[in-house]
């Protein structure tokens, strides 16, 4: 196993009830880089992320994080290893305020006063809506504001790996630009990122490395730059859906 | 910090005074209305104490516990045994001496119900997580076994549970007579609601419970063990049912092994009216059920049994997920 990879999946199979979704996924997420996981609808991207987080168990193969086998661990244990996860539906607690959502993710803080103030200021700089709507029920936020809150919540404490499922889905161009800036700053701060995307332009602007999935396996992996510059490869791997 | 806030949904809260005001002209006498209203609020607060744990148990883990009633009966029977040893204290006409007897009875009842709740969760509920039909069958079976065990220990007959001396009688306010115990029940219920509301809104554990009710998978993804949280809520819910059992037994002034099953119907109506998983909703639901039972018992005794079902149907026609639905459910 290459020590430069923070996360490694080796031949991972996942079944959901009678359905065989992942058919031997092999994926490396290099430390300190931003990896894009691309693919058509139903290719297995979300299942891959959920398998990493232990929300669905791998029936075969292994998942290693920082050299440690986490395949059989339960979700709280995996999250406790400094992995933050933002699901496709954002996982916002709608009946809780923005502040309460943030406090929940700050595992070391017993109350809002114990949250890291300097880090909060940095997050407010990335996502001003989080500060504006601090005492507002999260369910009343717009889709873009919820996505900002979801990412802000994931980074309320320093994490080694940030996994985000479709961060640009349904967002206005201005908010997508805001997200791109935020992810770039996070990467610059040393966080490793794994993002699932369907928006190729978003992926091209951010990704260092890329893996493309189809039918439950990774069919291509390499540098994002290579894929970005090769339109024929993009077309053959991603088709017209992207 | 620049912040914005939002308004509170006051409409469900207004239902309680609205119901009380609507029936006033039909009752006619102001003093009778006051007596019935206080009786309804007392009954509602006792039902709330019992139902508050059940609604969180359902909200957190989707567990339909039809055996919740057994903790009510258990708490009440345990209290009869404790009170039986404290005749000197319950027979005193000084309220503080009565409280010295009632408070330990309540605490022991809560402790026993909580410990039995821990075993109930481990051996009866845990094997059927995710299977609603099995949950209904096995928890009802658990309640039947519990009732039979109560009969083995305390006998099958009704046991009197007289009110301590100083809690008997009424306070006279003008023409209205308000039973002292009902005032005490309202105070105890308010205290329990206050503690629950404070815990849920001001502590990290409470925050986790509220978040878990909405999306337990996300709570786990943030690094928290929801199963442990659920066991804790189940135990506290069982202990509160035990406390409610003591209050209900004193309210009825007798206890029977079947009392839990009888109250079960009311508490399910309450948590459905309130919105599954909502503590605030359970309080509104309990107060409405308590008031409705007392008003219809006086005005239309023949429809009293049906009235709470009709109330639930009316509420669900207005808000199909209950008065304070929990988002994402």
What can you see in these coordinates?
The complex is a heterodimer of chains A (242) and B (329). Chain A has 242 residues and is α/β, with parallel strands linked by helices. Chain A has helices at residues 45-52, 75-79, 98-105, 117-126, 128-132, 143-154, 173-188, 200-206, 224-229, 231-238, and strands at residues 5-16, 19-30, 34-39, 58-65, 68-69, 83-86, 161-165, 192-197, 209-214, 217-223. In chain A, the strands form two sheets. Chain A has a six-stranded mixed sheet with strand order 6-7-8-3-9-10, sandwiched between helices. Chain A has a four-stranded antiparallel sheet with strand order 2-1-4-5, with helices on one face. In chain A, helix 3 (98-105) packs parallel to helix 6 (143-154). The mean pLDDT of chain A is 92. Chain B contains 13 helices and four strands. In chain B, the strands form two sheets. A two-stranded antiparallel sheet of chain B has the order 1-4. A two-stranded antiparallel ribbon of chain B has the order 2-3. In chain B, strand 2 (170-173) and strand 3 (176-179) form a beta hairpin. Chain B has 329 residues and is mainly alpha-helical. Chain B has helices spanning 11-27, 30-61, 69-84, 87-90, 95-125, 132-154, 180-202, 204-214, 216-221, 226-252, 259-274, 279-299, 304-318; strands spanning 159-160, 170-173, 176-179, 254-255. The A-B interface holds A 53, 55, 74-76, 79-80, 85, 87, 91, 93-96, 100, 103-105, 107, 110-111, 131-137, 139-140 and B 1-6, 204, 207-208, 210-211, 214-215, 217-226, 326-328.
Could you give the distance between the termini of chain B?
32 Å
Report the mean per-residue pLDDT of chain B as an integer.
92
How many helical elements of chain A?
A: 10
- Which strands sit side by side, in order, in the main sheet of chain A? 6-7-8-3-9-10
Strand content of chain A: 25-35%
Largest chain-chain contact?
A-B, 30 and 26 residues
Shape of chain B: globular
Largest sheet of chain B: 2 strands, antiparallel
Low-confidence stretches of chain A: none
**Rg estimate of chain A, integer Å:** 18 Å
Write the H/E string of chain B, N to C: HHHHHHEEEHHHHEHHH
What oligomeric state do the depicted chains represent?
heterodimer
For the termini of chain A, the CA-CA separation is 32 Å
Task: Write down the Rg of chain B.
Answer: 20 Å
């Amino acid at each position: 196993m290459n020590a430069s990879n923070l996360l490694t999946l080796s031949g991972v199979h996942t079944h959901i009830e009678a359905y065989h979704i992942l058919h031997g996924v092999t994926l490396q997420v290099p430390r300190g880089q931003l990896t894009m996981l691309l693919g058509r609808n139903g290719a297995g991207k979300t299942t891959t992320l959920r398998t990493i987080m232990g929300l669905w168990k791998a029936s075969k193969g292994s998942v290693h994080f920082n050299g440690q086998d986490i395949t059989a661990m339960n979700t709280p244990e995996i999250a406790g290893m400094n992995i933050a996860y933002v699901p496709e539906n954002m996982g916002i607690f709608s009946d809780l305020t923005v502040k309460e959502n943030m406090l929940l993710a700050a595992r070391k803080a017993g109350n809002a006063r114990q949250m890291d103030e300097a880090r909060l200021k940095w997050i407010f700089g990335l996502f001003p809506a989080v500060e504006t709507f601090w005492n507002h029920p999260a369910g009343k936020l717009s889709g873009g504001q919820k996505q900002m809150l979801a990412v802000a919540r994931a980074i309320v404490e320093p994490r080694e790996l940030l996994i985000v499922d479709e961060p640009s889905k349904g967002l206005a161009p201005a908010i997508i630009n805001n997200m791109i800036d935020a992810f770039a700053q996070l990467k610059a701060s040393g966080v490793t990122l794994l993002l699932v995307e369907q928006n190729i332009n978003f992926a091209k602007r951010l990704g260092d490395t890329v893996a493309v999935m189809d039918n439950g396996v990774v069919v291509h992996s390499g540098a994002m730059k290579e894929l970005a510059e090769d339109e024929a490869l993009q077309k053959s791997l991603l088709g017209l859906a992207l | 910090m620049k912040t914005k806030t939002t308004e509170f949904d006051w409409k469900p809260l207004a239902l309680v005074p609205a119901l009380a005001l609507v029936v006033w002209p039909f009752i006619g006498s102001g003093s009778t209305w006051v007596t019935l209203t206080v009786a309804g609020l007392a009954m509602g607060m006792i039902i709330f104490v019992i139902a508050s744990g059940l609604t969180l148990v359902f909200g957190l883990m989707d567990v339909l516990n039809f055996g919740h009633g057994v903790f009510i009966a258990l708490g009440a029977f345990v209290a009869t045994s404790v009170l039986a040893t404290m005749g000197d204290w319950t027979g005193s006409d000084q309220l503080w001496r009565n409280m010295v007897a009632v408070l330990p009875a309540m605490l022991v009842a809560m402790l026993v119900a909580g410990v039995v709740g821990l075993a109930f969760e481990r051996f009866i509920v845990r094997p059927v997580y995710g299977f609603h039909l099995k949950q209904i069958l096995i928890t009802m079976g658990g309640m039947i076994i519990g009732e039979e065990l109560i009969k083995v220990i305390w006998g099958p007959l009704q046991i009197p549970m007289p009110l301590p001396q100083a809690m008997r009688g009424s306070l006279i306010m003008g023409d209205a007579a308000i039973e002292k115990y009902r005032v005490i029940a309202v105070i105890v219920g308010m205290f329990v609601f206050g503690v629950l509301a404070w815990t849920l809104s001001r502590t990290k554990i409470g925050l986790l419970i509220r978040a878990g009710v909405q999306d337990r998978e996300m709570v786990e993804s943030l690094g928290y063990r929801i199963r442990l949280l659920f066991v804790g809520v189940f135990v506290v819910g069982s202990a509160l049912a035990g406390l409610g059992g003591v209050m209900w037994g004193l309210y009825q002034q007798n206890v029977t092994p079947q009392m839990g099953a009888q109250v079960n119907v009311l508490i399910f109506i309450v948590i459905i009216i309130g919105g599954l998983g909502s503590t605030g909703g359970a309080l509104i639901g309990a107060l409405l059920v308590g008031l409705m039972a007392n008003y219809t018992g006086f005005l239309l005794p023949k429809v009293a049994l049906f009235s709470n079902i009709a109330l639930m149907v009316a509420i669900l026609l207005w808000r199909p997920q209950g008065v304070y639905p929990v988002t994402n459910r």
